[in-house]
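Hi support team,

I've been running sequence recovery on a batch of backbones for a student project. Most finish fine, but this one hangs at about 90% for roughly twenty minutes before it completes. I'm not sure whether the input is malformed or the queue is just slow. I've pasted the structure tokens below so you can try to reproduce it. Let me know if you need the job ID as well.

Thanks,
M.K.
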């Protein structure tokens, strides 16, 4: 099944190639070496003891490595038979009982998850989906481009409680190396702990789970939704390998039928709920988020923005602006030297959400605030007459960023929908005309629904402008079709939101023209998009695309590390919604709903926002499992949530 190459310097797995893969992709490429035990023990005066390679035997497809320090010995047996297997025996060789911390005890497992040019990514790189589910843990590594040759890994003994990322200097285009961390355990002198796993080839996400169910300790956990609203019934199904004889679950009403445990639970309060599940001695869990109803959540969020994030200071260029908010210091923040902390760019999401919400909810306080913000926008960074959109206040043309203008377009459309004032559509057209005359037709913009402004112009009687914008949009989309899989580099070399515009623009041209060429091409790009998503039973992960650079640019922590979720995750949901509608496929509609529901955890019931959640246990020496303190750029998630639930 695999061709392997072992590393004589450290006894690990240097290369893992699927037999018959024409691209000869190495699935375990990284700065570290796959399979090297990572056990760090703290000794007196904060010195730390790692491991050294004591001995190494390589015999064809088999390899035996022994690592040690004065306290611990680790024997590793690697065997490349029909499936590739590794077995680790950790033995306490000291005179004292040793407790092993979860974030300092594990195995380095770098998968080839980094971004070069798109063509290289689609054939020789993978999206690594890690589920740390105690005894039932796995890795689903999907080649970034459509392929039936992908690598899966299931834990066959032991328990994984989390993972650590070690990020390189060029982390913007590299998720770094992973270390799978064991759940905490202790060993008496002479006692041993065993951890083992097996790797195999699978064709797609369904095939991965079919193969995973062959393992005795795999529990297949699924939910009707990973994010539910207060008062909405949650249903969890846990399918075991064998008939269930003994079980426990921490919440809800449980029933058993054969190999399936069903848990029902109706939450009465918002927040995270962890369901610890044990079946026939095998432990795992599911993580669920409970949200207030969408209307209640959005109203609270807008109230927070208006009261705490709108800046008022006579004589200031920022008067009327919606600013970044620091939830730790309880204060607004602006920094014109860091563009992602200025008062334009993604902060437009706040105004867009309010304009959309007010179309169905009368609120004078919100409306007056929005009008103050609108005055700020066209005074400071969007030119009413020319349509030029600047990167920051003072209409400063120093830096040109093509992402910004389409968001002003969306803002103008929602202002028109709210006020019925055609001037907003006229300036919207000027914005898009300027955008396209300055290279926008070869750019992949985020967060814009291109069919909507075309339709609104026609509905308002501005037929000539509608036709011209359609011509721009068609040329833009035709360019995307001609690029195919050669996605152009943007702020990151290749990523989810370089693929989503290809899908959404093509589907909206299909909506406007009925030409199936657009639908057929959108399907090809959608195959690449889906491969970014996990299906793990955790609201942070399920149908959430991989993103890892967002907190560095937008957050207070300024950390490169997995952001599950990040608000731009919703653009995958929007793409799935359009695909489901165009192709009449309910599977995509369910994917869209789950994707967007799972982004609602970025907002608290009282209306605070968080730009990202750092998911891994640790990122280098920094802590993980935290929401970043900045409320910065997350509000587009609520905008697309409103759009989804009005169309689903």
């Amino acid at each position: 099944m695999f061709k392997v190459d072992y590393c004589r310097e450290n006894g690990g797995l240097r290369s893992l190639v699927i037999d018959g893969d024409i691209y000869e992709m190495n699935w375990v490429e990284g700065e570290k070496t796959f399979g090297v035990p990572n056990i760090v023990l703290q000794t007196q005066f904060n010195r730390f003891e790692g491991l050294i390679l004591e001995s190494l035997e390589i015999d064809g497809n088999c390899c035996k490595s022994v690592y040690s320090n004065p306290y611990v010995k680790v024997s590793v047996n690697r065997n490349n038979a029909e499936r590739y297997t590794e077995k680790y025996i950790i033995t306490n060789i000291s005179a004292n009982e040793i407790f092993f911390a979860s974030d300092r005890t594990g195995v380095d497992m770098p998968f080839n998850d980094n971004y070069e040019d798109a063509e290289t990514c689609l054939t020789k790189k993978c999206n690594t989906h890690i589920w740390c589910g105690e005894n039932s843990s796995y890795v689903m590594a999907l080649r970034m481009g459509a392929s039936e040759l992908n690598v899966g890994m299931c834990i066959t003994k032991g328990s994984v409680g989390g993972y650590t990322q070690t990020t390189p200097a060029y982390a913007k285009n590299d998720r770094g190396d992973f270390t799978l961390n064991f759940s905490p355990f202790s060993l008496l002198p002479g006692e041993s702990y065993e951890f083992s796993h097996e790797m195999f080839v699978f064709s797609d996400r369904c095939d991965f789970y079919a193969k995973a169910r062959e393992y005795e300790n795999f529990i297949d956990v699924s939910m009707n939704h990973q994010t539910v609203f207060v008062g909405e019934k949650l249903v969890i199904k846990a399918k075991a390998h064998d008939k269930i004889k003994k079980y426990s679950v921490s919440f809800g009403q449980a029933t058993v039928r054969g190999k399936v445990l069903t848990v029902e639970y109706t939450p009465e309060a918002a927040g995270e709920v962890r369901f610890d599940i044990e079946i026939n001695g095998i432990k795992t869990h599911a993580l669920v988020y409970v949200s207030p109803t969408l209307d209640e959540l959005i109203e609270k969020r807008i109230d927070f923005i208006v009261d705490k994030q709108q800046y008022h200071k006579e004589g200031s260029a920022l008067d009327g602006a919606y600013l970044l908010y620091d939830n730790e210091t309880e204060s607004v923040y602006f920094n014109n030297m860091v563009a992602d902390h200025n008062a334009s760019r993604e902060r437009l999401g706040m105004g867009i959400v309010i304009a959309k919400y007010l179309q169905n909810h009368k609120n004078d306080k919100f409306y007056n605030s929005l009008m103050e913000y609108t005055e700020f926008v066209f005074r400071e960074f969007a030119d009413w007459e020319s349509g030029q959109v600047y990167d920051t206040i003072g209409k400063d043309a120093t830096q040109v960023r093509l992402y910004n203008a389409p968001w002003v377009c969306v803002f103008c459309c929602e202002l028109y929908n709210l006020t019925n004032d055609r001037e907003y559509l006229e300036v919207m057209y000027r914005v898009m005309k300027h955008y396209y005359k300055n290279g926008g037709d070869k750019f992949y913009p985020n967060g814009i629904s291109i069919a909507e402004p075309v339709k609104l112009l026609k509905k308002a009687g501005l037929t000539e402008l509608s036709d011209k914008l359609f011509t721009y949009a068609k040329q833009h989309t035709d360019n995307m079709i001609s690029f195919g899989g050669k996605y152009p580099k943007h702020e990151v070399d290749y990523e989810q939101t370089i693929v989503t515009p290809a899908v959404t623009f093509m589907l909206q041209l299909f909506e406007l023209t009925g030409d199936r060429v657009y639908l057929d091409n959108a399907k090809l790009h959608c195959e690449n998009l889906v491969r970014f998503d996990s299906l793990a039973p955790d609201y942070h992960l399920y149908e959430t695309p991989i993103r890892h650079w967002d907190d560095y640019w937008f957050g207070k922590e300024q950390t490169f590390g997995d952001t599950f979720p990040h608000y731009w995750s919703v653009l995958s949901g929007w793409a799935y919604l359009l695909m489901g509608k165009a192709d009449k496929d309910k599977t995509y509609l369910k994917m869209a709903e789950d994707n967007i529901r799972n982004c609602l955890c970025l907002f608290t019931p009282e209306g605070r926002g968080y730009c990202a959640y750092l998911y891994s246990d640790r990122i280098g020496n920094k802590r993980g499992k935290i929401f970043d303190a900045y409320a910065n750029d997350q509000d587009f998630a609520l905008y697309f949530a409103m759009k989804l639930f009005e169309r689903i």
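--
Follow-up from support: It reproduced on our side and the slowdown came from queue contention, not your input. The first helix runs from residue 118 to 124. No action needed from you.
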